[in-house]
Each structure stands twice: as structure tokens, then as C-alpha cells.
Amino acid sequence: MASSSLYYSFLFLLLLCTLATGSEFFLPKEKYTHLRVFLHEVSRGPNATIYTIASLNNKSPSKFGDINVVDAPLREGPEPSSRLIGRAEGVETGVDMDRKGALSLMTLKFTAGEYEGSAISLLGVVFPPTTSERSVVGGAGQFRMARGFSFVKLINSSEDFLIVEIDVYVAHHEKLTVRPM
Ligand SMILES: *[C@@H]1O[C@H](CO)[C@@H](O)[C@H](O)[C@H]1NC(C)=O
Ligand SMILES: *[C@@H]1O[C@H](CO)[C@@H](O)[C@H](O)[C@H]1NC(C)=O
């Protein structure tokens, strides 16, 4: 019985493979962009932009195992009044037993300016307040097929807020226009 249903699944897969169609798409010339944005985090209170959603509560100074979610404004400059150009949305998890370091999965979503509607995705372990590097693992819109690297540097912080500069060096393709099918 089991082997005959396996046989039919196999036939079905085979059918799917023969039905699937493929086509090529054109990859425009690669270009290289350096951009700088400032993330303005509110650490607590009603307007907090970061929340701890799980914790091992093991009193570890490194916050090992803590999971935080972030949705913070991205601005053009370090001043809180500077122009809002997007949001940084992501998850950060304490992954270092000794130091306060977090594995950061973050998407920079641009909502205004030259890159409106586009996004860059970052991945890496950060060690605030030390300047840390994350990889550019992809992107959307103008940053389709992006790759590169980025630095995050502390500009100012207190108990209530944190302002960091994010420098992104990204290789991507200009006008890679493919629409959803
Ligand atoms: C939270 O944001 C609202 C709307 O921007 C603002 O009116 C309020 O003063 C803020 N609260 C704090 C504690 O910053
Ligand atoms: C850091 O933030 C404090 C409090 O808002 C402010 O008084 C100070 O000027 C800021 N420092 C820098 C270097 O931006």
C-alpha cells in the first residue's frame, strides 16, 4: 500500500516536472551603490521600536537566547527631526555565550526618496556598541539580486534611545524589471 502510494506520488512529480515551463530573463549591467541611513530606536515606553518576545531569563549578561523584534524608523541623518526615508524591520537573537552579541536579520525598507519601494536585507552577528559588519544577502525592487556588506556604528544612545549609522555597500542590477506572473 505504502509503496504504491509512493509510486503514484512519483508519477505525479514526474508529471509536474514535465508541465513546468521555464524562460530566460535578461540581467542588466551590475552597478555599485554606497548608501548611508540612520536607524532611530526607542528602547522603551509606549513608542518603543524594539520588543523582547522571548527570553531564557538565565540572567546571562550576554542575553544569550533572547529574541527581539524591531520595527524602527530610518532617517536621512542622525538628528531625530531629519527626513523619514524608511523602516528597519527584523529579528535579533542573542547567540553569543560570552559577549552581548545578536544575530541580526534585518530588512531596510525604503518608503521615500531615490530608493522608495525598494529594500535591502542584512544578515550577521552584531556586537553593540562595537562597529559591526553584516552581509547584504539580497534585496527587492532596485536592489534585486543584491549582494554586499554593511557596517553599523553607534552614534548616540541612552537608556531610552539608540541612534546608529548604517553604511551599505551593495552590488545590484539597474532596472531589473521582472513582474510577478
Ligand atoms: C509617542 O508618540 C506619539 C505620537 O507621535 C507622541 O504624541 C507621544 O508624545 C510619544 N510618547 C512618548 C512617551 O514619547
Ligand atoms: C546625544 O543625545 C543627547 C540626548 O538627546 C543629546 O543631548 C546629545 O547632543 C547627543 N549627542 C550627539 C553626539 O548627537
Helix/strand order: HEEEEEEEEE
What is the tally of beta strands?
Answer: 9
Which molecules are bound besides the chains? 2-acetamido-2-deoxy-beta-D-glucopyranose
Strand content: over 45%
Categorize the overall geometry: globular
Order the strands across the largest sheet as they lie in space: 1-3-4-5-6-7-8-9
Low-pLDDT segments: none
Q: What's the multimeric state?
A: single chain
- Structural class comes to mainly beta
Helix count equals 1
Radius of gyration: 21 Å
First-last Cα distance: 39 Å
Mean pLDDT: 90
The biggest sheet amounts to:
8 strands, antiparallel, barrel
Helix percent reads: under 10%
Question: What would you say this structure looks like, in words?
Answer:
The protein is mainly beta and 181 residues long. The chain contains one helix and nine strands; from the N terminus they run αβββββββββ. It has one helix at 2-19; strands at 30-42, 50-54, 67-75, 84-94, 102-110, 119-126, 132-140, 147-157, 161-173. It has an eight-stranded antiparallel barrel with strand order 1-3-4-5-6-7-8-9. Strand 4 and strand 5 (102-110) form a beta hairpin. The longest helix is centred in the N-terminal third of the chain and has 18 residues, at 2-19. The model has no long low-confidence stretch (mean pLDDT 90). The structure holds 2-acetamido-2-deoxy-beta-D-glucopyranose (2 copies). Residues 45-47 line the site of one 2-acetamido-2-deoxy-beta-D-glucopyranose.
